Amino acid sequence: MLVKNCKILDKGIEKIVDILIENEKIIKIDKNIDRCDDTEVIDANKNFVLPGIVDLHTHMRDPGLSQKEDFTTGSMACAKGGVTTFVDMPNTVPAVITEKILDEKKEILKGKSYVDYGFNFGGSKNDNSSEICKVVDKVVATKIFLNVSTGDMLVTDENAIVNIFKNSKIVAVHAEGEMVKKAIEFAKKYNKPLYLCHLSTEEEVNFVREAKKEGLEVYAEVTPHHLFLNDSDVNRNEKSKMLLRTKPELKTKKDNEALWEGLRDGTIDTIGTDHAPHLIEEKLKKLTFGMPSVENSLEMMLKGVKENKITLQRLIEVMSTSPAKIMKIKNKGKLEVGYDGDLVIVDINDSTKIDKESLVTKANWTPYEGVVRGGKVLTTILRGKKIYSDNKFYGINGREISYE
Ligand code: DOR
Ligand code: ZN
Q: Could you confirm whether 274 is annotated as catalytic?
């Protein structure tokens, strides 16, 4: 495939280039590349072309909760949102806490995704470190819940936590407040890389800033909703009081600002959506934590660029390059020769509103309905094949990622 007239950022400088992809990989980036007869040509029309987004935090609900989302609908939401690689969390049913369950989950989901994917393994309360040892090369990270959330995966036993840290390649944690500090202490003591999911407060950003100053291998993620939304949005009306509930809860405007600052100054490394689809009926009937997000994350972060919250260069780092690098995902996250031909073409001049009608997530609602998007995903390309363009989807070719 040859993608013509791509506006790209090369070390912060805008350039117009053509990108040639062969056998799934980018093989040439240059001005005016000539086409061969049988090469598929796509014209980016001087729109921005970014490396496909890598989202390290999604809950695709498959198997077991597929009334909320399944691997196909969730991956369509990815393709439409410019996400070409996602990592699925272990709180599916059954919870992914043994090698056998992991292998079975992988088998069930084969051939169902439009984009590439990987899995996190779950650390369990009754210490499954012997299982963790068996799967370290088959998963992205071990995820542990140190605070209550959706599913029954809270780990409180200190011995179990220690063993999980000792036996994992990298530990991803759901930790809030003081538990962030605690997780950092474990990482330090057991000399393990730590990935802190969804920071939500100024205090947590400060904990991470200190840890990085100390030279610890600690990474942090923030979700678009913790950047853009806060308690005043939750309290807007009776409906929002139910819909905009998530773990961690949305905090204050001041916390939003501290998270943006953390994202700018390198304290926060990645955007992960925590795409947590629940049907709107479930959300309105009973307090249910989590919100869908993957379909609109890039469009929202481009809004952040327009509002001068971050630069486009930083957006590319936190949404593509760093997530792939931190988790050592092979050939993802950069527009460079040798990398996978995962591209997203975005129109940053689009100023239409995010609407409910075009959603593909089974959750069928978005916290951003009516918001003016910062740009629109026109086309998404996975390993040199068009998978999404102009509201149409093509070919289920997603496969599991590999590691460096
Ligand atoms: O709000 C949340 N929902 N937070 C989580 O950590 C899990 C997620 C879910 O799975 O619904
Ligand atoms: Zn989550």
A: yes
Cβ < 6 Å from ligand 1: which residues? 59, 91, 149-150, 174, 246-247, 274, 276, 289-290
pLDDT score of 246 more than 90:
yes
CB 354 within 8 A of CB 340: no
SS3 for 189? helix
Ligand 1 centroid vs 230 CA: distance in angstroms?
Answer: 17
Query: What band does 119 get if pLDDT is binned at 50, 70 and 90?
Result: very high
Helix (H/G/I), strand (E/B), else coil: 110:
coil
> How many angstroms separate the alpha carbon of residue 60 from the centre of ligand 2?
10
Which ligand has the shortest distance to the CA of 276? 1
In this predicted model, what pLDDT tens digit does every residue of 159-203 receive, in sequence order? 999 999 999 999 999 999 999 999 999 999 999 999 999 999 999
Closest residue by Cα to atom 4, ligand 1, is: 247
Give the contacts of 266 (CB within 8 A, at least 6 positions apart).
Answer: 212
Q: What is the pTM of this model?
A: 0.98
Core vs surface per residue 299-330: b (16+ CB within 10 A) or e: bbbbbbbeeebbebebbbbbbbbbbbbbbebe
**C-alpha–C-alpha distance, residues 19 and 31, integer Å:** 9
